[in-house]
Write a structure and sequence with these properties.
Elements (H helix, E strand, L loop, with lengths): L2 H14 L2 H11 L16 H9 L11 H6 L4 H7 L4 H8 L4 H4 L9 H20 L6 H42 L12 E3 L5 E4 L5 E5 L2 E9 L7 H13 L6 E6 L4 H10 L2 E5 H6 L1 H15 L4
Parallel strand pairs: 4-5, 5-6
Antiparallel strand pairs: 1-2, 2-3, 3-4
Helix pairs in contact: 1-9, 2-5, 3-8, 5-8, 5-9
């Protein structure tokens, strides 16, 4: 299955869950009397307030109230979507991460000050959106929520694809070495594989794959499958830290989901890294064989 197919299936499944509607039901169920008067106290513009009133919409369905966000932090997902803000942008503008609120990790009520600050941010943006449309309706708000969720889930996919790539590479390497008869018959099969010549192949986190012979690390493979170019240098930084901890003479391999021009320049300066693109070695049989030969024949020398 291609990355696009995986992405489409993942996004479709997540959006069909309609977590925003669950939060809408929570908001509907809040039966305490909420005071929005005066609206500008919560950064709601008078014109936006008047427009929502003219549509006979209950204010809490459009505008965030600190008491709701404080008592039910997950509702941030609904109001943030209405305001077309990303989690990152909320943190930058309000100085508070709403990720634990929306993910359900915030078990206690949110501090009133934080809830108020975030609610005001949402209302300011929602007011601006309403004022910018001559015929804004609640359906417009729902479309904004879905758009925001789609962007968020797309980001989740970009992060998740890295783990998918890591698993795919490790599984294929295991299948390949077993097919070549390299693995010792009595070798353990969980996280560590002993080859017939005594070399140990360890699966871990940093590095992802490590080859050890006579208690010395002779080669490593880092797998950075993330596709988001914006995070490429961050992934390179984590990889570089791992490689710098390897002993002198160790050969380090990188399997990457994407290589940006700046990333390529920095890799060339490092000089001790052999780089492969995941798409090349996963979709092209010849490229995979060249990668495997480079690792196991020329570097590890077990075949």
């Amino acid at each position: 299955m291609t990355d696009d197919a995986v992405r489409s299936r993942l996004l479709s499944g997540l959006l069909q869950q309609r977590k925003d509607m669950l939060q809408r039901r929570i908001i509907d169920g809040v039966d305490v009397e909420l005071h929005f008067d005066p609206p500008d106290r919560f950064m709601i513009s008078q014109s936006a307030w008047n427009h929502v009133q003219s549509l006979d919409i209950v204010p809490k369905i459009v505008f965030a109230h600190p008491e709701i966000i404080s008592a039910y932090p997950t509702t941030s997902l609904y109001y943030r979507g209405m305001s077309l803000l990303s989690r990152k942008r909320v943190q930058q503008m309000a100085g508070t991460s709403v990720a634990p609120w929306e993910d359900g990790r915030q078990k206690k009520p949110v501090e009133p000050e934080k809830a108020g600050k975030v609610a005001c941010l949402y209302n300011c943006m929602i007011s601006s959106i309403i004022e910018g449309s001559s015929d804004w309706t609640l359906d417009n708000g729902y479309r904004n929520i879905l758009a925001t969720m789609g962007i968020m889930y797309d980001g989740m996919f970009r992060n998740r694809i890295g783990k998918i790539v890591e698993t795919a590479i490790k599984d294929r390497i295991v299948s390949w070495v077993k097919a070549k008869g390299i693995v010792s018959e009595d070798a353990p099969d969980i996280g560590s594989y002993r080859f017939r010549d005594g070399t140990i192949m360890n699966f871990g986190a940093e590095p992802d794959i490590e080859f050890v012979r006579d208690d010395q690390t002779i080669a490593t493979i880092e797998i950075k499958g993330g596709r988001d170019p914006a995070g490429a240098l961050e992934r390179l930084g984590a990889m570089r830290k791992s490689f710098e901890e390897t002993p002198k003479g160790c050969i380090n391999f990188l399997v990457a989901g994407v290589i940006t021009p700046e990333m390529r320049v920095r890799l060339e300066k490092m000089g001790v890294v052999k780089v492969y693109l995941f798409d090349d070695i996963s979709r092209n049989k010849k490229s995979w064989e060249e990668f495997a030969k480079e690792v196991f024949h020329y570097t590890i020398r077990v075949i």
